[in-house]
């Protein structure tokens, strides 16, 4: 469910027509619905009612300051993977105690930055990282709160590029090694062991991989308890899928209902790290048709958004719905490849789409609120798109379209 619906034949975001947004702000533009973001966050938060919990939104999905601010106001926690994300979350007003820090390559600078503000915990992903974190914390006269991200070696049955919980993936601490690391960590002067977690992949459509991963983690929690190592929280990660086309992912309530009995039995605080399930269907990418181009027996619909704005189709062969903003009955429907202006054959947003469009028409690429703008680049010296948040009838420009000055910021010419 989302707040993007046709009213009088025109697609709207909440109470605002996307045509009006394009007229005022131009294209390509990402448009997010505040109501959808809030509802999706609350679906997780409410599902966890009755257990101590913290829903840590995965900032990488959509890190616009206004998006973070909306979630911060709902008392969200935040899962970050870099110093840059930490900075954003703090700017959005989040208290450090609601921030968890994931990622396989945390630098010393990032560790110091996070220790200085006092984040909730580091999700540690290797022995080398543990040793570094201990060293950095001791030098600062602090103790770093640590939760190991365990790799439970379960197949999440998703795209191989976004599967993270198999032994061969670079993520997490091998479950067989984790026990020894917990013992070592509990003796380190700069470390306080606080939790355990996992994150097995993204766009998961089944409950069973979540259940398998949790069972393996809980068995480890028991083994640790027997050795006198007690934890405060368990983090079941993110990864819940969304509907792009005809997928039927479990909703947050179904996921939590399935895992609740096992979690309640532990008495631990529960954390989750959803990204896509909160932001994905809360946004669209608004784009304008520039040209229609027949080529052999194909037809191309060339739009002003490209792979630099939304890389998921090119990168994962991902399917995202592409719909007209204004429904037209006066035109013939054709099968188009919807492509951008970038000089790559991989620059496409959709293949074989049935559309009735003419140049100048607006299209909306659906489910673009997660891993859209955050994965955008300036390839081909294309300024990154504007971002808008709609809140009822209010339209907020929350990131201005980049200018040519933005494109060359920080560059310098040689003194020739
Ligand atoms: C550690 C971690 N947590 C949470 C997420 C969020 O994943 P998703 O957007 O699939 O919920 C990711 C990305 O997959 C991640 O790497
Ligand atoms: N960026 C990916 C998901 C990767 C998740 C990051 N841990 C996507 O668009 O589907």
UniProtKB/TrEMBL annotation:
Residues 35-279 form the Orn/DAP/Arg decarboxylase 2 N-terminal domain. The keyword NAD does not apply. Belongs to the Orn/Lys/Arg decarboxylase class-II family. LysA subfamily. It comes from Banduia mediterranea. Homodimer. Pyridoxal 5'-phosphate binds at residues 239, 273-276, 371. This is Diaminopimelate decarboxylase. Its EC number is 4.1.1.20.
């Amino acid at each position: 469910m989302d707040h993007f619906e046709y009213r009088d034949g025109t697609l709207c975001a909440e109470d605002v027509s996307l045509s009006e947004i394009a007229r005022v702000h131009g294209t390509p533009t990402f448009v997010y619905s505040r109501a959808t973001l809030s509802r999706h966050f609350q679906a997780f938060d409410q599902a966890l009612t009755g257990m101590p919990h913290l829903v840590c939104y995965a900032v990488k999905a959509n890190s616009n300051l206004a998006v973070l601010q909306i979630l911060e106001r709902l008392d969200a926690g935040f899962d970050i993977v870099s110093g840059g994300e930490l900075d954003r979350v703090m700017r959005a007003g989040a208290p450090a105690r609601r921030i968890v820090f994931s990622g396989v390559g945390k630098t010393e600078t990032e560790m110091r930055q996070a220790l200085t503000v006092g984040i909730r915990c580091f999700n540690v992903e290797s022995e080398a990282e543990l040793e570094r974190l201990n060293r950095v914390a001791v030098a600062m006269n602090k103790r770093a709160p640590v939760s190991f991200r365990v790799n439970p070696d379960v197949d999440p049955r998703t795209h191989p590029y976004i599967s993270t919980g198999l032994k061969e993936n670079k993520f997490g601490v091998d479950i067989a090694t984790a026990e020894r690391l917990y013992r070592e960590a509990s003796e380190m002067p700069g470390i306080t062991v606080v939790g355990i977690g996992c994150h097995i992949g993204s766009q998961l459509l089944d409950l069973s991989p979540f259940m398998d991963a949790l069972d393996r983690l809980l068995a480890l929690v028991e083994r640790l308890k027997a050795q006198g190592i007690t934890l405060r929280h368990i983090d079941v990660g993110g990864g819940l899928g969304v509907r792009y086309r005809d997928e039927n992912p479990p909703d947050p309530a179904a996921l939590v209902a399935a895992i609740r009995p096992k979690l309640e039995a532990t008495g631990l605080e529960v954390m989750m790290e959803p990204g896509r399930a909160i932001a994905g269907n809360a946004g669209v990418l608004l784009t304008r048709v520039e040209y229609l181009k027949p080529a052999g027996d194909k037809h191309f619909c060339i739009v002003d958004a490209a792979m630099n704005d939304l890389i998921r189709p090119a990168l994962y062969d991902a399917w995202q719905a592409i719909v007209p903003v204004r429904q037209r009955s006066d035109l013939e429907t054709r099968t188009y490849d919807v492509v951008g202006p970038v000089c790559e054959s991989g620059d496409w947003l959709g293949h074989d789409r049935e559309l009735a469009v003419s140049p100048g028409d607006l299209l909306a690429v659906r489910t673009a609120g997660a891993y859209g703008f955050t994965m955008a680049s300036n390839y081909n010296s294309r300024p990154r798109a504007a971002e808008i948040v709609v809140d009822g009838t209010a339209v907020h420009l929350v990131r201005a379209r980049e200018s040519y000055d933005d494109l060359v910021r920080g560059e310098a010419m040689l003194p020739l």
